[in-house]
Design a protein that fits this description.
Blueprint lengths: L20 E6 L14 H8 L6 E2 L4 E2 L5 E6 L7 H17 L3 E6 L4 H12 L3 E6 L19 H9 L4 E6 L4 H10 L1 E4 L5 H8 L3 E7 L21 H14 L1 E8 L10 H17 L1
Parallel strand pairs: 1-4, 1-5, 5-10, 6-7, 6-9, 7-8, 9-10
Antiparallel strand pairs: 2-3
Length: about 280
């Protein structure tokens, strides 16, 4: 008998009812300010995930021992940013209403706003841990409030002062860094201070957003706005494992892979391995 050809992220093929973690793709890059292409990331990540193992020797855990569900990609309207964000909020809200953890694969970083809106509706005292090369704290970009360059500023409007912890930041305009001084806890250039932040956030509800351009372009060239001076793969692996295993993560995302800028496929493979480590650390 023949079966349907349904592609999921590796080992994320359990039934929805059995899964605690639910993946979904948000392939949107309608506000990308430099090089577009992140809309293709979710499908590329699914396809290339079968080039890695389900077993992590780093954590001595295997994905086949847990239940994950991949709900596929949202069909987002590229000409309507508000509607795209609303559709993401709806999908994340449905997953949360069923007592599960939404794990979103972007897409440009603006997609995070949709997921954070849903999580913030359920958990009023929400904290955000943010890994990125860019501050993403502009009030607007070329007059637009909804931009990947503004996403953490919009999230700040939801969660308030002292609720956003940023790591790896090495790019932004002067006003973004001045805003961070009074409103977020920013750790520039590296993950220094992450262990102390994890201790501070224990017992609190946390949303984790990972922009993969926190990695150095020598490790991860396949992104729309590469910034020299970033993390190594192992530095990021250890950091995401710490956050996902020690904190009460109630929603998360991985974004800003643009596979068209790395025809070798190495950047996509890096993204797959980081997602595997996050899923296992969350399990």
């Amino acid at each position: 008998m023949l079966n349907k050809n349904i592609q999921t992220f590796i080992a994320c093929d359990s039934e929805y009812e059995d899964a605690r973690i639910v993946l979904f793709g948000a392939g949107f890059d309608g506000t990308t300010s430099f090089r577009p292409g992140t809309r293709f990331a979710p499908s590329a990540i699914r396809s290339e995930s079968f080039g890695i193992e389900t077993y992590s020797p780093y954590q001595d855990k295997d994905m086949t021992d847990y239940s994950y569900f991949d709900s596929g990609d949202l069909e987002l309207p590229f000409g309507d940013t508000d509607r795209a964000i609303a559709d993401i909020t709806d999908r994340a809200g449905t997953i949360l209403a069923d007592g599960k953890l939404p794990f979103m694969i972007g897409g440009e970083h603006l997609v995070t706003l949709g997921s954070v809106r849903a999580v913030n509706e359920k958990y009023s005292d929400l904290y955000i841990v943010h890994f990125d090369a860019h501050a993403d704290l502009r009030d607007d970009y070329l007059g637009q409030k909804l931009s990947h360059a503004c996403v953490l500023r919009r999230c700040h409007e939801l969660v308030g002062n002292g609720h956003i912890f940023q790591f790896g930041i090495r790019s932004g305009d002067r006003e973004e860094f001045r805003f961070a001084d009074g409103h977020t806890e920013m750790h520039k250039f590296s993950f220094e201070g992450l262990e102390e932040t994890v201790e501070k956030l224990r017992g609190k509800k946390v949303y984790f957003t990972l922009d993969l351009d926190v990695l150095d372009p020598s490790v991860f060239p396949g992104t729309g706005t590469p910034e020299a001076g970033g993390a190594t793969f192992d530095e990021l692996r250890k950091a995401v494992t710490l956050v996902c295993s020690k904190l009460d993560i109630v929603g998360c995302d991985v974004n800003e892979l643009s596979p068209v800028y790395d025809q070798s496929g190495v950047s996509t493979a890096v993204a797959c391995k980081i997602i595997r480590e996050m899923l296992l650390a969350l399990s």
